[in-house]
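Form 7-S
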Amino acid sequence: MIHPKELAQDLLGQYYHNHLKKERRRQAADNVRLLKIDTASQTAMMDLASFGKGYELKKFFKNSFKALQKNNIKYLIIDVRSNGGGSVTNSTFISRFIAAQQFKISDSLYAIKKGGPYQRYIQNHFWNNLFIAFLTKKKKDGNYHFGFFERHYFKPKKSHHFDGKVYVLTGGNSFSATTLFVNSIIKQENVIVVGEETGGGAYGNSAWLIPDVKLPETGLRFRLPLFRLVTDKNIPKNGRGVQPEVFTPPTVEDVKKGTDYKLDKALELINKDKAQQKN
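Output:
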């Protein structure tokens, strides 16, 4: 029979253990996404270091755009300079709060084959093959196309949609789903991309299912994208990333002083817009 005191200690220990795990998850999420609002200047800053799963990003986006509307924010800076990508579901979700019209994320999304003699070295190969077998269709080009995302148009959000000016900060560490996010809104008049060329390709990228592979002899590990995604077939296929509309490279003085020159440029553009609104 368990003594009541021991039972209480066990329950208390379990409570603190669960509380600590929850607190660590919250801290990890805070390091990935953060919203800062300055009501005096009607400006907000959203830091997004990842579109990965596990950070409650959908909840964060809903609460953030609700807060922007509540506080009558006119200018939004979104920093994706260190965002290496993640879930397309998350990147598409935030796009819908900003997009002025419906949009697609790809012209084509396909795998060149399913199965193969070396599948046993690929992580989750059974589920990957199942995914390709049931959710793709082999077409005349011999590739297995994920037709839903080749045809589907995502509609803008009606609730808490942001119609103010948006300044997106990009750089060489902006990859994968981040380039899809930038591509989905870059043509809008109220969106200005500031910074440097993205590391992820503008024409397309290798993405979607990216399992780990472990080589049998050396034990070497690497990641192997199973799908090829073409964002927009009309974009030049030249190996370049998404080009910023306001190119903002670092100067020698910026490097010496450690200034955030891209953020400074966005704030400069906001102040310029405010001055024009007064005239």
